[in-house]
Fold this sequence. Notes:
Blueprint: E1 2-9, H1 13-24, E2 29-33, H2 40-44, H3 47-61, H4 66-69, H5 81-106, E3 109-119, E4 122-127, E5 132-142, E6 146-148, E7 161-163, E8 176-180, H6 184-195, E9 199-204, H7 215-227, E10 231-234, E11 238-244, E12 247-252, E13 257-259, E14 262-265, E15 269-271, E16 305-307, H8 318-332, E17 346-348, E18 354-358, H9 361-366, E19 371-377, H10 382-387, E20 393-399, E21 405-411, H11 415-427, H12 432-437, H13 447-462
Parallel strand pairs: 1-2, 1-5, 2-3, 5-16, 7-14, 8-9, 8-14, 9-10
Antiparallel strand pairs: 3-4, 4-5, 6-15, 11-12, 12-13, 17-18, 18-21, 19-20, 20-21
Amino acid sequence: MIKHDFIVIGSGPSGRRAAIQAAKLGRSVLVIEKGRRVGGVSVHTGTIPSKTLRETVLNLSGWRERGFYGRAYRVKKDIHASDLMARLHMTLDHEVDVLEHQFARNGVHTMLGHGRFVDAHHVEVTLDNGDKRIVAGEKFLIAVGTRPYRPADVPFNGTNILDSDEIVEIPHLPRSITVVGGGVIGIEYATIFSALDVNVALVESRPHLLEFIDHELMEDFTHQLRDRGMAIRLGSKVDRIEIENDWPVTILENGRRVRSEMLLYAAGRVGATDALNLDSCGLVTDDRGRLKVDPHTFQTTVPHIYAAGDAIGFPSLASTSMEQGRIAACHAFNIPMPPAPEFFPYGIYAVPEISTVGMSEEEVRRRGIPYECGIARFRETSRGHIMGLNSGLMKLIFSLKTRRLLGAHIVGEGATELIHIGQAVLNLKGTLDYFIENTFNYPTLAEAYKIAALDAWNRMMQA
């Protein structure tokens, strides 16, 4: 029997970061991965594939140049699924190679196979050839991630009714697609297909898209989607999905029918924990297969077993999952950790991008904090004009009492990069004066921070 100090089940962002951290602490580490290659959902069907497809689509379609050359402009006239897959596979191969090198350099052992607990200190691993091995561990991290939620009444067929894992290996580009689910994944793919000039219908049962994002930002975002022809059906649940003449038809509870050549069902994900035999070590999950943990240490109710990443739920970001894994590994081996920063950025890689950090205007109101907002539009910056940007919005929220930045919210080109300036100022308790008094490179989109701060300052002076 092989014994390790730390056994990590899953090699996604939280698993790999935890494994490498534990190895750097001099511990013997084993990573168990059920896939054919390491990387987990993030590398093979989630974060990296969806962002690679997005970038490929924007490049081949000429999306970024249409502000100058018109909506008919194309870099490549006919774009096929094979064009997207070629770049995707090159990117994934590189990601796996880098990860394997990191594991090798740090002495992390890997085992490809399905792991399940035998008891609280032993895991049985079923290898691809059917052989089974028992491994023992002192400490464990469950980092198995999630899989798409697949209701039994949705007729998935792998060809034109797909889930969000299957869509990354799309067999062909459709002329029309219905996306069921207006969460982060659904919105990202809906806007990627829209950028390819595919007719897109987005169906969401809730009355608003991404309700946790500042509402003014989402109004601007939704307007952009409708302006380019996307049909957005809000506030109606799906009654059933049928196939008529080989095409999927989504029938809503209000009787509306949405017919398209392809359908992506992206209404949630569930923790991939059901095959771990958690009963044997005294763990239980919620109805979505997620584990409850201490939010500061990521310990489960069994002290030597930790869990991190999407398997524990919100915020389900690759960035936060990595940090959760690192914190869990440090805590497992008694390495003191400073408290995590209060604010972290949220990035949504739609077309256009959305990124946000800190409090939304709705949250500031709920807390009863006197505040003022400043707005900047990317077209107001010289860099935005040079780039041909007709859209893009930055919103900053400041406290009237302390002048401190309370929240930064961006929709538009480069939002997920630009947000880090706001994140730094927020976590360092900076004020409106930082943006007004400091010099930004010119011309840049980052100038929008100064424009938005000056807009807020003007409003404050008028109050």
